[in-house]
Write a structure and sequence with these properties.
Elements: H1 8-21, E1 25-32, E2 37-43, E3 46-52, H2 59-62, E4 72-76, H3 77-85, E5 88-95, E6 99-104, H4 105-111, E7 113-116, E8 122-127, E9 132-136
Parallel strand pairs: 3-5
Antiparallel strand pairs: 1-2, 2-3, 4-8, 5-6, 6-9, 7-8
């Protein structure tokens, strides 16, 4: 790993730059969740990009049917609903260490676990092993 992503905005810019080099065309960007996530309308698909400081370390402990050492990722149900309204088909997650993963939104919805966090918000969580590692920033 060469670099660490320092800010959310820098991470989003770098991911979009890499995707544009692969042929992705950005049409519009909509910040959600206090600008911690962005919905990107583009071609060939609409995407959600999230930024996380770390993985959900207690995922495997919380969801016993997964291995106890399994780590996960979580997204608020409210943000998933907005993503569905924007016809998002893929989720990209940037971790602060610069690793970028992706998962089709349908796969996230099928395999994720729904629960209520300490703030009273509905959340869906999924093991990271179901994500595809895309690239390192």
């Amino acid at each position: 790993m060469d670099e660490v992503v320092i800010t959310i905005e820098a991470g989003y810019r770098r991911v979009l730059t890499i995707l544009e080099k692969q042929g992705y065309r950005v049409r519009a960007v909509f910040p959600i969740n206090f600008s911690r996530y962005i919905i990107v309308q583009g071609k060939p698909e609409n995407i959600l990009i999230t930024f996380k400081t770390d993985v959900f370390r207690s995922f495997g402990v919380m969801f016993k049917h997964f291995r106890s050492h399994c780590v996960g990722d979580s997204i608020n149900c409210e943000d998933l609903k907005k993503s569905i309204q924007f016809n998002v088909t893929k989720i990209y997650t940037i971790f602060s260490n610069g690793c970028v993963y992706s998962i089709p939104i349908n796969k996230f919805l099928i395999y994720s676990e729904k629960w209520v966090n300490n703030e009273g918000k509905e959340v869906r969580s999924i093991p990271i092993r179901l994500y595809k590692k895309e690239f390192q920033l």
